[in-house]
Amino acid sequence: MRTPVLEFSCVNYIYHTISCETHALKDISFILNKGEFISFVGPSGCGKTTLLNLIAGLIPVTSGTIRISGRSLSESELNIGYMLQKDHLLEWRSIYRNLTLGPEIQHKLDKEHLEMIEELLKTYGLWEFRDALPRQLSGGMRQRAALIRTLALSPDILLLDEPFSALDYQTRLNVSDDIGSIIKEKGITTILVTHDLSEAVSMADRVIVLSKRPGTIKADIPIHLSLADRTPKTSRNAPEFNTYLNQIWEAVHDENEDN
User: Fold this and answer.
1) CA 145, CA 126: separation in Å to the nearest integer?
2) Per-residue pLDDT of the chain (259 residues; tens, 9 = 90+)
3) Predicted model pTM
4) What's the rounded Cα separation, in Å, for the pair 165 and 196?
5) How far apart are CA 100 and CA 44, in angstroms?
6) Do 51 and 25 meet the contact criterion of CB atoms below 8 Å apart?
7) What are the backbone dihedrals phi and psi of residue 177, each rounded to the nearest 5 degrees, phi first?
């Protein structure tokens, strides 16, 4: 039996300004199970990033409930990691000191966390660049560093908001494969927001399609690929890959054409 980690129940979010109000998300309900990887796709402005901000507790729901391991967001003790579109590495700190920043702020700069950071640096090819400044790294290396920084606090839920969008196509494929493999290997419960449908299918266990604003759940599609050793890169060669890609593209495309 799978264990629910995150539960959305009829969640609505409305932006209020002086001149008007905007219904960004409407009646969103879904469950994210422990160790599961979900991708959210949909038209621009459909509320994908807003959904992540709600989970992270950066903004409050207008109505409905969000529960983490059966508790409200305010009561939950689970650690949520949030990797944004830009790496936001501090240019005046070395890569190593960027990665230790989170534990430093949370007063967890102990032997266990330092050993984890060093292991991740070695495993994912950044050990020799630990004393370099961010500007001395390529875009792909910076994104790997940003992920290690996020993983350094051992998140129970990982939120990824278009983390590869600034990379060129080849680098994007390689970095998404690296990061996806790390997530699968460690069994991290993950939500990815992306505009890249191929990326969504190749990385996720399920793809949820949001409608145009106000964002509602239009489709929830489990991804089953007949591969013995599935990674984001090998997923693209699976015989079912294009079928899923077309199914999801049609759902998003039909929504864009709907007036």
Assistant:
1) 8
2) 677 899 999 999 998 877 788 899 999 999 999 999 999 999 988 889 999 999 999 999 999 999 998 888 888 878 898 988 778 889 999 999 999 888 888 787 788 888 888 988 888 788 999 999 999 998 888 888 888 888 888 889 999 998 877 777 887 888 788 888 888 888 899 999 999 999 999 999 999 999 998 999 999 999 999 888 888 888 999 999 999 999 999 999 875 545 4
3) 0.88
4) 9
5) 34
6) yes
7) -65, -45
**DSSP secondary structure string, 134-154?**
GGGS-HHHHHHHHHHHHHTT-
* Tokens linked to 103: 């534990």
How far apart are alpha carbons 7 and 29 in whole angstroms? 7
Beta bridge partners of 193: 40, 161
- Asked whether the CA dihedral 194, 167, 59, 33 is positive or negative, the reply is positive
Radius of gyration of the chain (CA): 19
In the block, residue with structure tokens 């409905």: 64
